[in-house]
Design goal:
The chain is an all-beta fold. The chain contains no helices and five strands. It is elongated.
Length: about 100
């Protein structure tokens, strides 16, 4: 299996949280390590808000992958000061 054939769960810069350890806070992927050796390990290092870096298995084909052990991507988006866009009123067919 080539490095490009590995099924990785997380990529550099992804935001994550752990469902069992809320006290860690949100985390960001700061390093991805993928072995080029056949059968080698895929690891990901995450820096959490509590200031600690933690390392997890990142290979989705492994039972020990962090996605199966409680690590989740943070899909919440903060649009902050983004202005709301309103639609123009709809016209019925035949109106101009």
């Amino acid at each position: 299996m080539l490095e490009s054939d590995k099924r990785l769960f997380l990529r550099l810069g992804d935001r994550v949280f752990h469902v069992a350890y809320e006290q860690w806070g949100l985390g960001a992927v700061v390093e991805v390590m993928t072995s080029v050796v056949p059968g080698g390990t895929c690891l990901v290092r995450i820096l959490f808000e509590d200031g600690k870096q933690r390392t997890f298995n990142n290979d989705m084909d492994s039972e020990l992958c962090c996605c199966y052990l409680g690590l989740r991507k943070n899909w919440r988006f903060d649009f902050g000061d983004t202005p709301r866009v309103s639609r123009s009123p709809r016209r019925s067919i035949g109106q101009r």
